[in-house]
Amino acid sequence: MAGTKRKKKSAVWRKIHALRCEDIKLWCVRRLPILKWVPSYNLKENLIPDTVSGIMLAIQQVPQGLAFAVLSSVHPVFGLYGSLFPVVIYAVFGMGRHVATGTFALTSLISANAVERLVPPVNNNFTTSNNTGVLCLSEFEMQRIGVAAAVSFLGGIIQVAMFVLHLGSATFLLTEPVISAMTTGAATHVVTSQVKYLLGMKMPYISGPLGFFYIYAYIFENIKSVQLEALLLSLLSMAVLILVKELNEKFKRKIKVVTYVFSLYNIFTCLLFLT
């Protein structure tokens, strides 16, 4: 038995010593794609377009991040933090050049589910301010942020484990109808969660089985509490977004000004939201 153990140990050590610098370098490049594309990055051709794209995405991420923070039931400023760090991480570990990462509506909705269950608004009897923090957040808000951070940390651990085990290839097992159904279902839940803001209504948090239908039942029962100003502003914003999107898809190769109009609209929306 001792001889067998020694042979196994010696075999392991031989494999370790057999590792060369090229093997280690290849392993690092596979795990860190930034080591592959940074040395071959063309500054003259890609720096200016990438800078312009980054500025436009940053402008768009400001109102989008604030909105997703509200969707996550946390303080809006944490939506800006959530828009910054995923991009930095993806720049190191990501492989797609045309992927704009950041806050996402579905993950925000899942996080809000945990936040609302563990720290419901009914328990909002904490102190109104907390002078220990720079943002002067209440204890109630700090507890909600702690729950959201714990959920995000757990999700990050799961994603790292999937990354190490190369489980990304499992997505090839999902057929196109399954992916389309999941996308449609997620979009439906996200839109439903925003209906109360579109109508300017105040409604309690509703979740659980058949919560989707209970939300619309509550809306129709309290249809008289809809604020006309919020409804008109929501319809106007959606009409402008749909119109510009359709014009951009139809005339973007012929008239470049449509793209600039859409960009100016994003800037105007961001400035209007901040003011």
TrEMBL record:
Q: Where in the cell is it found?
A: Membrane
One Pfam family, short name? Sulfate_transp
Give the superkingdom in one word: Eukaryota
The record's keywords, sorted A to Z, are: Membrane, Transmembrane, Transmembrane helix
Domain SLC26A/SulP transporter residues, every copy: 48-259
- Report the record's Gene Ontology biological process terms: transmembrane transport
- What is the recorded membrane topology of this protein? Multi-pass membrane protein
InterPro entries on file: SLC26A/SulP_dom (IPR011547), SLC26A/SulP_fam (IPR001902)
Q: What is this protein called?
A: SLC26A/SulP transporter domain-containing protein
Q: What organism is listed for this UniProt entry?
A: Pelusios castaneus (West African mud turtle)
